[in-house]
Design brief:
Radius of gyration: 24 Å
Structural class: alpha/beta
Strand order of the largest sheet: 1-2-3-6
Low-confidence stretches: none
Oligomer: single chain
Shape: elongated
Helix content: 25-40%
């Protein structure tokens, strides 16, 4: 019954919506072009890392982290979609990070500001971390991350030798 009412209401409003937008929403006149109302979007995405975090102090949150090897011009849109889906599913704060491990200079957008929305995720370039940050670990998986970090001007073969020695 409610769906029938919604459908009728939607159809009636379609004829007069520009006037409603002006009088009720306070939007300016101009050309209003209707768009398809069907907002179905099929996307099956798999997040790189997704965790529910319960910190010792403060509210629990969803932690979402993507690792990116290239500058993706659609990264901002992708992260916004992930945010919407995660918030819709979990109904809790979502903290998002993209860790860039590419060779090129980082050039992705990390924020969107419109008159109705402010959105931002954190963008981290692994090359801003010293290789020593990872070399100091006792876990071989972490030590391997040193390859993607900043060598601080030291020769690559010297760093490779240090990493191999640590792994041995």
């Amino acid at each position: 019954m409610a769906q029938d009412y919604d459908k009728i209401f939607r159809e009636v409003l379609k004829e007069i919506f520009p006037a409603v937008a002006h009088k009720v929403l306070g939007l300016p006149g101009g050309k209003y072009t209707p768009l398809p109302a069907d907002l179905q979007y099929t996307s099956e995405r798999e997040a790189d890392q997704l965790w529910e975090v319960a910190p010792p102090a403060g509210e629990p949150f969803v932690l979402h982290c993507e690792f990116q090897t290239t500058n993706d011009p659609q990264m901002l849109s992708r992260m916004l979609l992930y945010y919407g889906f995660l918030y819709y599913q979990k109904r809790m704060p979502v903290r998002q990070y993209v860790i860039y491990v590419g060779r090129d200079t980082l050039q992705m957008a990390d924020q969107l500001q419109t008159d109705m929305l402010t959105y931002r995720y954190r963008l981290i370039d692994l090359k801003t971390f010293s290789y020593q940050t990872f070399l100091a670990s006792d876990r071989s998986q972490e030590v391997l991350l040193a390859v993607l970090a900043d060598f601080g001007g030291e020769p690559a073969d010297l760093i490779a030798g240090k990493i191999i020695a640590k792994l041995e």
